[in-house]
Amino acid sequence: MTRPLLLVLAAAALACQSAPLADIAPGESPALESDEAGFWMSMEKADHELATSGNRIRDPELDAYLKGVICRVANEYCSATRVYVMRQPDFNASMAPNGTMVVWSGLLIRVQNEAQLAAVLGHEIGHYQRRHTLSIFRRARATTNGLMAITLLTGGIVPAAADAAMLIGLGTLMHHSREQESEADTIGIERIAAAGYDPREVSEIWAGIAREAKADKQSSMAGFFASHPAPETRLREMEAQGKRLLTPENDRGTHTAEFDNAVVSLRPMLLSDEIAMRKHARTNVVIDRLLEAETISLEAAAFYRGELFRLRAEKGDDLLAIAQYRLAISGPEAPAAAHRNLGLVLRRIGDGALAREAFQRYVELAPEANDRAMVDAYIQELSK
Amino acid sequence: MRSMLILAAAALAVATSGCTSTKVLKPDVPHRFDAGHAKFLLMPLDVELLELAAGGITSPRADWTAAARGHLQKSIVERLAKKNGTVVEADESLLSPDSQHLQLFKLHEAIGTSIFQFQAGGPNGQLQVLPTLEKGFDWSLGSSVKDLAQETGTHYAMFVFVRDSYATAGRKAAVVGAVLVAAVTGVYIPVGTGVRNAFASLVDLETGQVVWFNRLYSETGDLREEEPAAKAAEALLEDFPL
Fold first, then answer.
1. E-strand stretches of B117-195
2. How far is CA A180 from CA A28, A83, A136, A229, A368, in A?
3. How far is it, in rounded angstroms, from Cα B165 to Cα B48?
4. CA A175, chain centre distance (Å)
5. Is A25 exposed, middle or buried (0-12, 13-18, 19+ CB in 10 A)?
6. Is A175 helix (H, G, I), strand (E, B) or coil?
7. For residue B30, what is the DSSP state?
8. Which CATH number, 1.25.40.10, 2.40.50.100, 1.10.238.10, 1.20.140.10, labels domain A297-384?
9. Residues near A346 by beta carbon (within 8 Å), at least 6 away in sequence
10. Looking at chain A, which residue has its C-alpha nearest residue B51?
11. Complex ipTM
């Protein structure tokens, strides 16, 4: 058999489609002997692990807020879903076949208002509604079964044929995954538009993600096997659909204040987690966007940028950090930590007098701080 | 053609037979049991049965798992009772998110899988034992286990973990196919069938010490049926100290 013929055979064996799945009905649970029930069983266990995980952000108010937004967009699926916020500083959310939704905390500093948040949650509802996990699993099983047949048929003597089939198979799966993502995007934007959220907000999410990806040279969001469409593609898609779905009822329905109210107390922790990732360029974009959306003040942004420079500590960063901290403490609501961290950088560059001053200001503002003894020791050291 | 048939039959025989092995681990100074007075708390069994498709992908099966769990629970209770002990079956509520004993269960999950993985040979018993664990057997959940003893009125907690997979017809055909291919071309493409990896672990609720541990690896027996499940429970409790 010639190699091209084998390739054609491989492609044919892998291209066979499984029957499309019907939407899950509200309140529906699968028959016990089905593969779907198996996933539900595993996910019940995973659900328990998420609920009791040390990495979960246990904030009943935030959970209630998220659940409220989910119900606004999920309607008939409201009671079938649960949401857990996990302390994970990246942009992501996921949905299990049994309605367990996971939101990564990094999402909450990347969406700018409730409309954008609702779009992501609505996207996840789309995965649930269309039974995407089950669909991709069945396809993966059919594909690997086909690969086994090809491997046995070629007798292991034409490894190239098996390898080629593997590539085609994986490519097909990834293509299917991207199709699912696009489908979920559409369901998400249609659901939020119907729920009174401005659909033009959705493309903003992808504009932000595209900016981050561009800034972060190490990020690789494109590629043959990428399971998600490129952010630029989603940006264009969502821009077009946003215009199409705009109505007088949802026009300018961003619900920014509600969103801000729900996450404002968490934001310092979320940004500090993001900064700890040591992805300077990407985090700068996150800060820029928070500033552009007027979510945080110029002074607050300066504090976070000061942190970025202080932690990167490359040539010249100390002076940049000092400038940012100075701007931060010129504002009315500067965190005490801005003074302490200014002191740390000043101490590092050998400016003892100014460092001592900054540390003293810190202990004045935060006399009960749990690092008080450490800072006092610095003050003593610098007073000699 | 005839030789092909013989080969196919041989392949099928290979595919459907298999071995069972156990490995018991206990502390160097064996724990002394108060025979006749021991009360065992049987923790909720951690069981999952999976289906192994032709291409090697596994997926959990809820119906098989429920059946196996029921059979194993019954057999283990019966066998523990025979060994001169009283058995208390822990309620699932012991593991609810707000139960104070949940963390203990999670701790044992970490300890049990560590013993399984690093001292007892891991899945299929083929992993190397960590050099630091070649000698001795010293694992403990700490003395906070006393609360569980007090609350349930028991002396020992028994933890059971079972993962088992069963090949689909397609997978069995692939096994036969691989043997045939090997016979014709001399190239063997390894295709495995379902295997069972399990362990049972007994914790002294006075000290928190793991006083007995058994790893079970098996390629035979169907836990979805009562009789083989009882045999598996027997193997799992092999060399049980009481």
1. 156-167
2. 21, 21, 9, 10, 52
3. 9
4. 21
5. exposed
6. helix
7. P
8. 1.25.40.10
9. A322, A352, A354, A355, A358
10. A35
11. 0.82
- Strand-pairing partners, residue A94, are A102
A88 contact partners, CB below 8 Å, separation of at least 6: A55, A104, A105, A106
Q: What are phi and psi of A271, to 5 degrees?
A: -70, -35
* Cβ-defined contact of A145 to B54 (cutoff 8 Å): yes
Angle at A14 between CA A5 and CA A16, to 5 degrees: 115
Surface-to-core class of residue B28, CB atoms within 10 Å of its CB (0-12 exposed, 13-18 middle, 19+ buried): exposed
Nearest to A35 among B55, B59, B185 (CB): B59
Pick A156's closest partner by Cβ from B65, B97, B185.
B185
Query: Which chain A residues are closer than 8 Å to B48 by Cβ?
Result: 41-42
Residue with tokens 């923790």: B43
Tens digit of each residue's pLDDT (9 = 90 or more) over B92-140 = 888 888 888 999 999 999 999 999 999 998 887 777 889 999 999 999 9
- Closest by alpha carbon to B241, among B161, B160, B156, B163? B156
Under 8 Å between Cβ of A197 and A253: yes
Best of B45, B46, B57 to substitute, by most chain A Cβ atoms within 10 angstroms, is B57
Q: Where in chain A is the domain with CATH 1.25.40.10?
A: 297-384
Output the pLDDT for position A1. 42
Q: Interhelix angle for A114-129 vs A60-74, to 10°?
A: 60
Q: Which residue in the block uniquely carries the two structure tokens 């995954």?
A: A177
Determine how many CB atoms are found less than 10 A away from the CB of residue A43: 18
Q: Which residues lie below 8 Å from residue A315, measured CB to CB, with a gap of 6+? A: none
pLDDT value of position A32? 92
CA distance to partner chain A, nearest, from residue B92 (Å): 12
Q: Which residue type does A65 have?
A: Y
Question: What is the spatial distance between Cα A192 and Cα A11, in angstroms, rounded to a whole number?
Answer: 39
Q: Please tell me the number of Cα atoms within 13 Å of B50 on its side-chain side.
A: 18
CB B51 within 8 A of CB B44: no
Who wins on pLDDT, B239 or A303? A303
User: Which three-class secondary structure state does DSSP give residue B20?
Assistant: strand
Neighbours of A263 (CB within 10 A): 19
Q: What angle do CA A97, A98, A102 make, to 5 degrees?
A: 80
